[in-house]
Amino acid sequence: MNEPAPSLETASPPTPPVPAALDALHERLLGDVAALPSLPGVYRYFDAQGALLYVGKARNLKKRVSSYFQKNHGGTRTGHMVGKIARLETTVVRSEAEALLLENNLIKTQHPKFNILFRDDKSYPYLKLASHAYPRMAYYRGAVDKRHRYYGPYPSAWAVKETIQLLQKVFRLRTCEDTVFNHRTRPCLLYQIKRCSAPCVQAIEADHYASDVANAERFLQGEQQEVMDALQARMLAHAQAQEYEKAGEIRNQLAALARVLHQQSVETNADAAFDKDADILAAVVQGGRACVNLAMVRGGRHLGDRPYFPTHVEEASALAGIDGEGSVSTPPAAQVEVQVLEAFIAQHYLDGSAPPLLVTSHAIDKSLLEALGDASGVRVSVQHQPRDHRRVWLEMATQNAHIKLAQLLGEEGSQRARTHALVDALDLAPDDLDTFRIECFDISHTAGESTQASCVVFEQHKMQSSQYRRYNIEGITPGDDYAAMRQVLTRRYTKLAEAAARGEARLPDLVLVDGGKGQVSMAREVFQELGLDLALIAGVEKGEGRKVGMEELVFADGRDKIGLGKESAALMLVAQIRDEAHRFAITGMRARRASVRTGGSQLEDIAGIGPKKRAKLLSRFGGVRGVVNASVDDLRGVEGISKELAEEIYRVLH
Description:
disordered N terminus; 5 domains; alpha+beta; GIY-YIG endonuclease; 45% helix; Nucleotidyltransferase, domain 5; 22 helices
């Protein structure tokens, strides 16, 4: 596909509008919309801080974009999004297919807040046949190397390993590493239990092993009947030549293959070429959440399924309710399911990995199929009202989607209940329970060495590991946990408090510190100096006998401490967050301590020494000790190390 045409952009400075400027901003946006062409393209909305709000495609840019601004959407989700728009950008393209490609590339890379978003999962495993005189089967994840052959993708590691075991039973291909294969002097246990033909010790002739490999590949490609016919012909040939032992081995292969085919839980029509490779997609929407269940058929075998749960479903569904005339309606559930299904197909398959057949729970836009075909170079067919075994596939996928979504809603309900219990126990009043945010701090060191503080974040009813932070604590008396807590809180909240005062950031709703009155007093001092609300702070103090479940909360604003009780959902949540902060602090401290003791941190602190140069130094001299013992001339002999840098390294290490 050709590159999209140059973009037509309307840009405005990403500065927060003041109330007096709102009318001017609105007028400017209307002017930008009026200047848009009536051509296909992609539009993007940004807020005052420059954050991407929404990406959409349009057959007619001017008509579509103007529909957002033709009326007041009130307090709806659409109105909430439109009220945040500070500028827009558009890109004109030649066709709807191009618009679809560009739209979903932007969604996958930019993660706009109001688009349905599926997590980019590239972790599908494959079955690999490594290139070799005696090819080896292996489980594989990662980039594809053209020297080898790959089959899949498979929905799970279990599906790959089950297939490998199947091929071992029937075709007895090797699975050992080349280093093991090259040094065997006698067959291993797999040969004894008839799971390998022992090519490592030439227990099988090369042409016979190659024939087994070829049959295994044909089996993986769905040619089971052809494989059985070929094996049967070989068995009869050996029998006629009175080679009864070889004929018996092939007979056993045929019997094993017949059992495998009989055990397949889903029978397929072997004469249908499309049924060899197909994906079955079922979308279900309920309770503001959605699930797309993907079931895979490869080589005619149903390999299992995997559920996907997109985010921003409610926001995107509200925007989907805008028609070309600017009116807003609540889209029916079926329409939302179509939208979710199309978003999944676009984001999942536009990298060119679509199979020749998709069996879907809903009809999808034909332009999406055109885009898939253009991206993959393979004609993709879609069937949403299947018959026979395809209907069975789709019914199974739909049932699994309902089950997985029900499990998710149940889990989220219990998680939300824990958050609600904590809010009630502490008598808090957050604006939105779903955005209730807790930050928890812990200090870790070993006898004062390598002190490190951790900050973990709880939001949207779960731990947000991408927002965790570690802080190296310096310039304090070793072992002084109070000074360490003061330092980390000061570093964490000084700039955040300033940004919050300007309306550019949001403070947490609750700050937990692992400790009792002493740590809470230190936190109170920091918050008083920064002018922050003391009611935000609570310390998690171990209760009587320091027993788990006896913890009490100590407050910085003078409230009496409270015990939540062993069976309290609020205590379970507090304990989970506190334990996670402790775990995160300990792992960081141990890593830092190991670095200090090996001297690795000394190299890291030298200006001009990055990961690559550090690796070259350590490799050349066999570790930090060798680098320390090296002369300036020795150091200069390492690629990328200048005379000046070698002298600096020598100075720092001596």
